[in-house]
Amino acid sequence: xxxxxxxxxxxxxxxxxxxxxxxxxxxxxxxxxxxxxxxxxxxxxxxxxxxxxxxxxxxxxxxxxxxxxxxxxxxxxxxxxxxxxxxxxxxxxxxxxxxxxxxxxxxxxxxx
Length: 112
Description:
By secondary structure, this protein is of the alpha+beta class. Helices cover 43% and strands 38% of the residues. It has four helices and five strands; from the N terminus they run ββββααβαα. It has helices at residues 48-51, 55-70, 80-85, 87-108, and strands at 2-5, 10-21, 24-34, 37-46, 75-79. A five-stranded mixed β-sheet has the order 1-2-3-4-5. A hairpin with a 4-residue loop joins β1 and β2 (10-21). The radius of gyration is 15 Å and the shape is globular.
């Protein structure tokens, strides 16, 4: 958890593993609270052997993605190979996407 306090606002970040969103669990939820606004990104770490093994699992993953998005948390999926090969590049992608979400929420919240 990281808190950033300004003169009229407070920004708090959390990283929650196995976060429950609706009826599903995200591998990680990177989220923030800014005034009355909450935003963030769900991060899924997918092993090829499980997640693309059959049509039913692919369908369940897509249903999870839609549920997360409807709850206000877009999903970023990384394969286990991608994470193993270059974890810093994966983290940089998440940081970039989270920055965009934070920008939108900040703008909608009237901070600028």
